[in-house]
Write a structure and sequence with these properties.
This protein is about 0% helix and about 45% strand. It contains no helices and eight strands. The strands form two sheets. Strands 6-7-1-2-5-8 form a six-stranded antiparallel β-sheet, with no helix packed on it. A two-stranded antiparallel sheet has the order 3-4.
Length: about 90
């Protein structure tokens, strides 16, 4: 099954959280921070959203930074993804 986002929505997949600190301490599952860097998996068509024209800037494969608690988490075929609005994406990582 694939997800095809609508309007200005973007499907992202978070990168794995660090399991050790820089000094080598292994972190428990609850101590890991939610990663803010993600890879774009699918992009909606943009268009008219809330009366304003939205042009999609991100594309599939981009690495992006998002707000910590933005979007809706979904599980498709055993993989966890997050659906966010393009405006919730803070930056593209190059």
């Amino acid at each position: 099954m694939t997800i095809k986002p609508l309007a200005d929505r973007v499907v992202i997949k978070a990168e794995e959280a660090e399991e050790t600190t820089k000094s080598g301490i292994i972190l428990a599952g609850s101590a890991k921070e939610k990663p803010q860097v993600a890879t774009v998996v699918a992009v909606g068509p943009g268009g008219l959203v809330d009366g304003k024209e939205v042009k999609m800037i991100v594309k599939v494969g981009d690495k992006v930074l998002t707000s910590k608690y933005s979007g809706t988490e979904v599980k498709v075929d055993g993989e966890e993804c997050t659906i966010v609005r393009q405006s919730d994406i803070l930056a593209i990582v190059e």
